[in-house]
Every structure is written in structure tokens, then in C-alpha cells.
Design brief:
This protein is α/β, with parallel strands linked by helices and 473 residues long. It folds into 3 domains: 9-125, Lipocalin (Beta Barrel); 144-286 and 379-472, 3-Layer(aba) Sandwich (Rossmann fold); 290-376. It contains 13 helices and 17 strands. It has helices spanning 9-12, 195-205, 230-244, 263-273, 290-304, 309-327, 332-344, 348-353, 358-368, 371-377, 381-385, 405-418, 456-472; strands spanning 16-21, 32-40, 43-53, 58-65, 77-81, 84-89, 94-101, 106-113, 116-125, 144-152, 157-165, 172-178, 209-213, 250-260, 279-283, 392-397, 424-429. The strands form 2 sheets. Strands 1-4-3-2-9-8-7-6-5 form a 9-stranded antiparallel sheet, with no helix packed on it. Helix 6 packs antiparallel against helix 7.
Amino acid sequence: MKRYFSICVLALSIGLLISIAASDNVKKDIDGIWLGTLKVPGAELRIALTISKSDTGKYTATMNSIDQGSGEMPIDEVRYENYFLLIKSSKFGFEFKGNVNIDEKTFDCEFRQGPGKFPIMFHKVDKLPRISRPQEPKRPFPYNEEQVEYDNKNAGIRISGTLTYPKADGPFAAVILLNGSGPQNRDSEVFGHKPFLVLSDYLTRHGIAVLRTDDRGVGGTSGRFEGSTTGDFTEDALAGIQYLLTRKKINPKQIGLIGHSEGGMMAPIAASESKDVSFIVMIAGVGIRFSDIILFQKELKWKNTGMSEEDLILHRTWHNNVSEIVTQDINDVAAAEKIRTLYSVLSKEEKSRLKKNPESLEDEIKWELSPWRRYASKYNAASIISKVRCPVLAINGSKDMQVTADENLKAIEIALKAGGNTNFMIKELQGLNHLLQTADTGEESEYTKIEETISPTAMKIITNWIKEQVEKM
């Protein structure tokens, strides 16, 4: 999953526009490009802050995470006085604060989010660095490309996306691409990669129509991402199915879903609810308890910080106890009180080792009891997958360090067999990570450094399997 990376991925995956009031005490300007590297457990992210001064004496700036892609996000509070700069977002719970040295052209600050505190040094540079993504297709494309919109009437939102299909008579088999967790655009843009753009291009060049869309509240799609659940996003996917059924170029009996990570949870939900789903592809899909996946991801980060085995046990116990409360069928108020009680019986030493205080506890409670988190924690993968009757392809990289291949693929296979589904393929792809990139370690820190967006071998496997299924329909 991608959402788990609460330290900085969500806050830094898109750019932002800020306004900074100029200080009368500062005789030299801070306008220009500032570049720094944020080092957090499992990742190094290049952050760029470009500041310019308006005619009225105020500053505006854009901040980009170079390795994660671009976008815009407002900041709640910015203060600049006597060379001290504070940039704070209460919405995403992070802040940068520190001192600007005009002469040395540095901004020495600290990044904070929740209990996490990380130093970052910005240096003034002449231009922004560029990253190489050789697989990204360039226009003009040898196929048709349409910008489309349609409604999810139940949710009252307008969904915006891109439909690509071959330049032939058709009708064509089609797939809808389902994003992983976190606010994603139609290209599933992350870490400077556009995996759904690359995948849709490959599929369409091989005769398969593709619909990819912006998530709720992202890009051209209306509604709010915040507060939405996997179930809500699945409803959006089903609205996409209904839209494709209206297109003459699309074969109504050959519409499938390809979901990555959280999208790999959505695909079986949709297939279990609608007979219009002809097949599904689960990429790094979930087959075990969601809380176990989150625990695995957390433990990787804890170990990367050199945490002792004794502290690992303490953190693991806290996680499991909180997760048990979150999955209970009780309201948020009762669940919050249970978590606070769990905290109250900790010793002072345990609170210190867990790096928890009343403020960080409330932040954790807010996250654990968010609609998305509570829905995901109650997601019963085995039960849902066992209800899927259409053909299923489940693939995962052997070096996936977010949704482990072995246990999840085995669990998916067991669930399909339990439901009597015999038309499926389970395949572990050697040497690939969570994004299906060819990787060395599979850790998140590699995502930005790898030029490959998706393994051609993986795309070939997906394409050939889909063609095999539609030929039988």
C-alpha cells in the first residue's frame, strides 16, 4: 500500500503554493530556487522550494517533491521574520522551520510530522534537477485518446478520466485501472513515475481499450478524497463499468479491472458485486489481514532505525492492541476511549520508548479511526475473494516490501479455491518490487532512483493473460 507512509509521502507527493510576507528587517531577498534532501526511514526525497517576490512585497513559492511528482497543496501558516522561516500545514500535520542564511544560501531547518523529526538543509541552486523516465510515452500516440467525464450518481460526483482505444472498428476488450491508496491522479503518479500512463499505453498498443481516472477530489474528479473509503472508490469503479457499457467501441462482455495495491482490494469487491466485471487483475493485491500488512510495513521502518528487539516487541504489542480496538464493531467515541485507556496503563518508560505523548496519541487516534482506516481494518480478503466468479490474475513482485508476495498470493489462491473458482493464475514475479519495477532490495528508497516505471515482462504477462481470457468469451 502507499498510504501507510505517513511520515511524508502524502504530504510531499504533490507541490504546493504558499505566500510569505516579507520582513522589513531583512535587507537581502530569499527569492530563488532552494533544493534539499529529506532523509526518512526507507527513503530519500529531493524537495525543491522556489520563492519569488511580488510587486507588493509579498513572496510566493512552490514546493515540489522532485522524486514523487508534482501538484499543488495549500499551506495553513507561513512566517518569515529575522531570517527565521516557518511553513506549517495542520491539514497534513507537518511543518518546516529553521533559519535562512542569505550569504551562504542555505535554509537549515527541521521537518516535523507527528512524532517524527528530521533535519533537512536547503541550498540555493540555479535550476531544478531533472529525472529520467524513459518508458513514458510521447504524443502523438498510434491510438485514439479521449478525455471523458461521467457520473457516480449515488455519490453525486463527476468522474474525470482518459479513455484510450485502438484505431480500428472494434468493439474492443477494455480495462479500468484502479489506483493504489493515497490521492492519485489518472496516471497513478508517484515517486516521479506515471505507472498507469505507461501501462495504459502498452495495453492499448496491444489492442485493449483502457480507462484511467482521477481519484475523488483529485485532478478533474469532484468530491472529497478525505473521508472516503475503499468501498467508496469501488463504487466509483463500478460507475466506470456502467460508463463503458454505453460506448459502442467497447465490448460489453469483455470489461475487466486492473487494480494495484488498494486497487487490488477494490477489484475483487467490484467483481463480487457486479456480473458486468468480466475479469480482474490484482497487482500486489491484499490476501491477508490489513492490520498485518501495516504491521509488516511498520516493522521494516522500525528495524531501519536500529530499534532493539525489546522495543520492537513493545511497538508490535501496541500496534496489535490498537488494531484490535479499531476492528471492533463500536462507534468512534467508544473506540477512542479504549485507546486512551490502553495508553493510560503504560508506564512512563513505555510511553517514552513508544515516543508517545498526549498530543501524538490524539493524532494516532484520529488516523486509526478515520473512515478509510476503519473500513480497511475490517476488510475480509478471504471472504470477498471467495465470492469472485470471473477469471482472476494475481501477480506480485518477489521483492515487494509493502505487500509481501508469498503470503498474500498464497492467501488469494486459497480463497479462490474455497469459493470454487478454477479460472485463475497466481504468479510471483522474480526481482520486482511493489511498483513492479526491477529492483535490488525492493525498499521504498529505490523507487525514485529506478528509471524503469514498470517491468516490460510484467506488462507482457498481464496483456497476454487478458487476451487469453477475452478469446474464450
